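re: ur msg from earlier - yeah i can do the EPU complex, just paste it... oh wait u already did. ok heres what im feeding in:
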Amino acid sequence: MGKSLSFKPMKVLENYSLKKHNTFAVDVNAKYFAEVSSTNDIIKLLSDFKEIPKLIIGEGSDILFTKDFEGLVIQDRLKGIEVIDQTANNVLLKSSSGEIWHEFVEFCVNNNYCGVENLSLIPGTVGASPIQNIGAYGAELKDVFYSLEAIDLKTFEKKIFTARDCEFDYRWSTFKGKFKNKYFIISVTFKLSKKDCFNIDYLGIKEALGENHKNLSAKKISDAIIKIRKQKLPDVKKLGNAGSFFKNPIIPKAKFEKLKKKFPDLKFYKHGNKIKIPAAQLIDFCGWKEKRIKNTGVYKNQALVIVNYGNASGKDIYDFSKKIQASVKEKFDVEIIPEVNVF
Ligand code: EPU
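and the outut:
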């Protein structure tokens, strides 16, 4: 994987189907659609389409379109990974935003750079990863994040954001808050370890490692994570979905104590001075596992995942999610909020 070099000229397509550009495989149109593979492409597009709403997408793996997008969808194809600095212990790796996240993880694992192996097989691009601070199996993007570079959509200026600027939290950064739709992230720099820094405490990893438990390597952990994910989560190529549809709710301790009296089996995690409850468990308790309405359903192995069995529309999926939300609210008095971006 080298630096980005030559690119085909950029084309702007009109009334273009986004079916292949969202992992729910929902068939909606974008008024305009273009793929960008350089910062020049981005700046040209931004200046040609100044007053038009814009949506930047990577793999479309965290999006639910409920209607046509009456603006310009920009597909990020910026490629390239480079080592920008290193010491005996650490390496600073800069990845262009359009790199596929899992391919970036593979690059790290194959070079024995430790820190992202628990985040193996997460769908999406590198550029999308800091926006919601992707996390899985006891690791979060913020643990390896160093900085990112983004283009201001209005002024076209480049700006560097540090971890502090991003205000990372569970499934959150300031790019979901005050900087939402204000920047095009063009690269992310990660600080990874050249020494072992393994983290195999999350439930199920040790079992999945089996004999590989001895003489650990980033590759062995990555393989174990891939195995777990393949068991739990549907393959988007076979069954449209966007991973966890909802975030795990975080509630005050006092509220949790009350809930625990009524539902003593509830699993939970500490989150600062609050409590995080697995939404999958709440959805499961409400009896949604494997339920299906027309072409939309809850996945059999993970209640947090809503799937498109066929030609479900975005509206069908959204209405289905609202039903789940309402029944969790009714049974537990807990709000579950979509993790997926709904348009
Ligand atoms: N559980 C159920 N029913 C289910 C699935 C899970 O009761 O159908 C219970 C399990 O018993 C377990 C708990 O819920 O104790 C947690 O389950 P799991 O380890 O699968 O994690 P999760 O909280 O449901 C989160 C992330 C996933 C990530 C996993 C593993 C969110 C919203 N989701 O799910 O991320 O892979 O942890 O770390 O935080 C994603 O974001 O798309 C995603 C898949």
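cool cool. Residues 1-7 have pLDDT under 50 and may be disordered. ping me if u need the other ligands too
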